[in-house]
Amino acid sequence: MEGKAKYNNGRTYEGKFVNGMRQDDDASLTLSHGDTFKGSFRDDCYEKGSYTIATDGFRFEGTYKNNIPYTGTWYNSAGQPESQIENGKELHKEQGE
Q1: Model-level pTM?
Q2: Which residues pair with 69 in a beta bridge?
Q3: How far is 33 from 53, CA to CA, in rounded Å?
Q4: Per-residue pLDDT tens for 45-92?
Q5: CA dist 87 to 32, 69, 75, 82, Å?
Q6: Which of 50, 54, 88, 93 could form a disulfide with 34 if both were Cys (CB 3.0 to 4.6 A apart)?
Q7: What are the CA-CA distances from residue 19 to residues 23, 29, 84, 85 (Å)?
Q8: How far is CA 57 from CA 29, 38, 62, 66, 92, in A?
Q9: How far apart are CA 47 and CA 34, in angstroms?
């Protein structure tokens, strides 16, 4: 089933549902404070896509595990890479890079 759901906590989801869970390769979720996720959901969790923070414009693009960035890149509001995440851990840049 495909549709739009507005939750009591202010979140809005647009995409497919399978057995009552969010499951889609092209869905979007807007949180009550304005952050957005666009991408794929599996078993009601973020799987792969872009999460944008409304207050500062930073965004993460990559994969997620239990809704937490797992492998990918954080970008600043100007679109420049800020940091890399690999297997759930932030990789630190060498000083001077």
Answers
A1: 0.87
A2: 64
A3: 9
A4: 999 999 999 999 999 999 999 999 999 999 999 999 999 999 999 996
A5: 28, 9, 18, 17
A6: 54
A7: 9, 18, 34, 32
A8: 16, 14, 16, 23, 21
A9: 20
